[in-house]
Every structure is written in C-alpha cells, then in structure tokens.
Amino acid sequence: MTDRHRQPLARDAMAYVLAGGRGSRLHEMTDVRAKPAVYFGGKSRIIDFALSNAINSGIRRVAVATQYKAHSLIRHLQRGWTFLRPERNESFDILPASQRISEFQWYEGTADAVFQNIDIIESYGPPEYIVILAGDHIYKMDYEIMLQQHVDSGADVTVACMEVPRREATGFGVMAVDETDRVTAFVEKPKDPPGIPGNPDYALASLGIYAFNTRFLIEQLRRDADDPNSSRDFGKDLIPYLVKHGHAQAHRFSTSCVRSSLEQQSYWRDVGTVDAYWEANIDLTDVVPELDLYDHGWPIWTYSELTPPAKFVHDVDGRRGVAVASLVSGDCIVSGSSIHRSLLFTGVRAHSYSMLDEAVILPGCHIGRGSRMRKVVVDRGVVIPDGLVVGDDPELDGRRFRRTDKGICLITQPMIDRLAG
C-alpha cells in the first residue's frame, strides 16, 4: 500500500499532554501558574503549541494532565479548547492530580501521571495509539509522520529527538543509536553524550515526545508501578527499560517538523529560563523570524479574546504613539509612547513619553508616563510607575528586580510594590 492510500493513523490516536510542571527556572513567572500556562507570542500560552500540533495532525482525542498551580492553565483550556465534540468521536479531558489511586498520592512522575488515568484512557476504547507530549515547548510538528514511522518500524516505543551539538547535549536525555536509528542506550544529562553514527560531533537529544501502541503502554505502566525502585518517570525509568528489554526507535524531528515557506530550519525551543523566554519572544519581531506564527496552513490555536483593535495616538515631537519592528496585540493603546523591537500582549497601556526597547510586556500591564524600559519581561498586570528607568544601571536593576546574567530584567508587581515601601 502506498503512502497516499494509507488511513491516517492520527484518527485512531490519543494525545496525552503532560502539563503539571512548575518550570522553576522561570522564577516568579511561575509563582502563580504552571510553565505550560505561561504566555507566549502575543496571545498564546506555551501549551497551545503541543495542542495545536495534535489538532493539526488530525488527532481528535486529547487529554491534559495538570498538577502544579493549575487554575490558570485549566481556565485557559476550558475557554479555548472545548470545541471537540463527543458525538463526532472526539474528546478533550483535563486531568488534574486528584488522588484517584490513593488519597495520599499525587502524580509522582511523568509515567505516573498517565498510569493514574488508565481507566479514563481505556474508557475511550482505547485508541490504538497514544502520543505522550510535553506541554512546555515551542515547536510545530506533524505527529502523523511520527506515528507512521512507529508502525513501519514495529517499535515498542518511538522517541522524538533532535540533533544538537554534543557539547550542548549535557542538559538533555540523550540517545545512542545504530545505523537504523534503533536506540541502543538512553542516558539522562550525560557528561559525555554519545555521538551520532556518521556524525560524531552531534548527539540525539530526546524531546519528551513518545509514541506507543496504547495496550502496550498500559502494560508497561502497570509493570513500572509494581517496581518499588522506579521513580515513575518516562525518561528515567520507562524508556531505559524498553531500550534494554524491547525495541525503542528514534524519530528525528527534522522529518516531521512543520515549516512554512519562510522557515528555513527546524524550530524547537525550551523557553524554560528567563533569558530563553525573552529571546524567543523578541525573535518574533524579526522581519523573517525563525518561527512563523503567520502560517495559516498550521495555525496555533488558542483562546481568542474579543478585543478592540490596537490603537496608536498622539503625533507631536516627543509624544508620538509609534511601534517599530514590534508585535502589538488587540486592546493595546500606545498613547504617545515609543516602542522598538518589543512584544505587547493583549490589553497593554503604554502612556505618554514612555519608551520600550526589546521589551516583552504581558497582558494588562500599564507602562507609566516617562518610564524607560530596556531588555525586560514584565509579568501580567504590572503597573509600572511614572518615570521608572530599567536597563541603564545594571547594579541598581539587580537590587530591585530579578536580573539575569545576560542582562534581562524580570519585573513583577510585588517587586514594584517593594519600591514604594
């Protein structure tokens, strides 16, 4: 049977998104929300990328496991992702850690977050295949291509991976493979990552994306749950076990990464630090960014608020509402403010004589008159006082705000409140 006559495997697959992590390296940004719920790109949340990939790939059964400070995430999912219809054999389940196995047991690891909901998975048939996804990365990927490889190879598990320079692979789970990309070893954060056959300067880093036959995964989860030495984690326990005792296959992200005509390279980002988060958002202001959010062939679905258009007012010297090389979302008012290479989320108010340069401003912020902000991330709802200057004095910035080694300042409302005290 040729590829074009195949029945899409995604029609009989479930996407199971692991979205319970805090993301502690984002510091105060995740004090009130889980990392997958962090805002990205002007109007989206980080989790929208994994969910959009699933929908665009043809998967119509989705489950999201939540745990850490999940209210913001659950509210977003309820508002933006409940369009799937049971009468069309579609489903969307939000699965908070609810002590369903034991009144004392929350999700103990990524594998346990699936194990505790086996009964819900089985209630859908279960689907023939299940794709396990991390909900905290920025990328565009067609999971159908990965599922096709999984079936063709006869693997017990297929692990999505990305080629990275060996010296940069020490922070990932890394796979050693043979010439057929069968995984021969899986090691977490190795000091000396194994190279790729024929390309020894690069290593294969796991992306935390796994494809299984559902019945097989359920068997393995039950086996792992009975192991008292297991930490109940895919990367630490389940995948290494299957590498040793079964058939684990590597799937190279470059073969299923979705690119528009403007995207030259495969794009995948972990925005898990303040620096990485700032950089990925600011990169979107480039004339031709590495990530194309304007690709109508692979849209990033999200909760779309009903907002008025962005507005720019005042046109006199020194008080001109203008934005250059910037993304400005709906319900923003740029009132006599100068904005350069910045990203403004929904509902920002930038008042007269203020200046934003390489700034990521989250929803509902007010930028006070005469303030100057350079290389900042301003958390949701922050009111910047009139005349505040950030970005000119590193020592002063470091005392008042969270300043990274690369000079990016994260600003939250409690930090601003302490200035007045």
UniProtKB/TrEMBL annotation:
Site entry: Could play a key role in the communication between the regulatory and the substrate sites: Q67, W106
CDD domains: ADP_Glucose_PP, LbH_G1P_AT_C
PROSITE patterns hit by this protein: ADP_GLC_PYROPHOSPH_2
InterPro entries: ADP-Glc_PPase (IPR011831), ADP_Glu_pyroP_CS (IPR005836), GlgC_bac (IPR023049), GlmU/GlgC-like_hexapep (IPR056818), NTP_transferase_dom (IPR005835), Nucleotide-diphossugar_trans (IPR029044), Trimer_LpxA-like_sf (IPR011004)
Example GO biological process: glycogen biosynthetic process
EC number of the protein: 2.7.7.27
Residues annotated for alpha-D-glucose 1-phosphate binding in this entry: Y107, G173, E188, K189, S206
Pathway: Glycan biosynthesis; glycogen biosynthesis
NCBIfam families reported for this sequence: glgC, PRK00725.1, PRK00844.1
Designated name of the protein: Glucose-1-phosphate adenylyltransferase
UniProt organism field: Sphingomonas lenta
Annotated gene: glgC
